[in-house]
Amino acid sequence: ASADPRFISSAKGKGLFATRNIRKGETVFVERPVVSSQFLWNALYNYRACDHCLRALETAEENAQRLLGKSSLVLPHPEQCSIRKDLHQQCPRCQVTYCSAECRQAALEQYHQVLCLGPSRDDPTHPLNKLQEAWRNMHYPPETSSIMLMARMVATIKQAKDKEWWIKAFSQFCNKTANEEEEIVHKLLGDKFKGQLELLRLLFTEALYDEYLSRWFTPEGFQSLFALVGTNGQGIGTSSLSQWVHACDALELPVLQREELDAFIDQLYKDIEKESGEFLNCEGSGLYVLQSCCNHSCIPNAETSFPENNFLLHLTALEDIEAGEEICISYLDCCQRERSRHSRNKILRENYLFTCSCPKCLAQADDADVTSDEEEEGEGETDDAELEDEMTDV
């Protein structure tokens, strides 16, 4: 591997360090999540994704038609769409859809035996459906986490022959003190969090209780599990339309055709934004062992993306990185990174419980601790800043 996790200090926890010189633009690693899940509202609104790997299931044309609300739209170069509907499979019992036989099998072997709803898929009184409905009523879009990520963790251990191996795998993720956990849960659930957390715990217990994991079902254990997902969950975004756009960008075309195609794509995205706003992707979150070791910097030397249109996370170097150097990503989006040190740290403290001391923040340490007038106007926008790394362009 090009990178290795190392313990830094009790305040900072782990960090990820380059084991060799890495060139700008190079893929540092590709990582599969230990567990992942699509967001519940995202699925409810017909963002159709593989139930296991989150690969978008619509063709690029269907994707664009739905986002535009226009079924007559025809995309040029349909051969550039990578979706293979002939490979799609459903669970024969509950009809959730997978992009391939491999994903259906992988889900079945890891967690789906426990979570398969069978004929109760549309029964609102089924414990798992009650749990999902309660979660949707507490956590509206923009979504940053999912109770089903926790459900899949429990189901994975219930199904596993080597339960201890999985418990160890999950315990690698950053843990917080009880006070910090409470802050994270509070952030995820809002003002009524104590009552909501207890309701979720009871529904979670009714749907999934397991003697072996009894600690996870106690109030303290459930809060810890919740905080683990809130702290370590990495947003995943997939889109067959963006895959098609990337493929079209790579086409060798005569100048005039290239200009026409670029103009068509630009206009398409403008029209989609009017109709669907910012919600373009199939979205979910996952737990990634290596990626979760990456600390934040306001001038990151690496970034995450999902170029394969599924849950495989690619970490790419934004700069040359020397052997022994720490690899950092940004927990803030581009707009947030341009703001003052005071504003950046306000977002990081509220959502990630730390104050940044990257070179950029240290260089600006003497700047006034007030936000500028323009920033004040934008302040409200960041109060709900993502609780996990920003959705990356796919």
**C-alpha Rg, in Å?**
22 Å
N-to-C order of helices and strands: EEEEHHEEHHHHHHHEHHEEEEEHHHH
Instruction: Output the structural class.
Output: alpha+beta
Strand content: 5-15%
Q: Span between N and C termini?
A: 23 Å
Inertia-based shape: globular
Number of strands: 12
Biggest sheet details:
4 strands, mixed
Give structural attributes.
394 residues; Beta-clip-like; 2 domains; 15 helices
Describe the fold and architecture.
With 394 residues, this protein is α+β, with helices and mostly antiparallel strands. The chain has two domains: 3-33 and 288-369, SET domain (Beta-clip-like, Beta Complex), CATH 2.170.270.10; 35-235, no CATH class. 43% of the residues lie in helices and 13% in strands. It has helices spanning 40-44, 60-68, 101-115, 127-138, 147-159, 163-171, 178-189, 193-208, 219-232, 240-249, 255-276, 334-337, 341-352, 359-363, 373-382; strands at residues 3-9, 13-18, 27-31, 35-38, 89-90, 97-98, 234-238, 282-287, 295-296, 302-305, 313-317, 326-329. The chain has a four-stranded mixed sheet, with no helix packed on it. Strands 3-11-10 form a three-stranded antiparallel sheet, with no helix packed on it. It is globular and about 65 Å long. The two termini are 23 Å apart. 39% of the residues are buried.
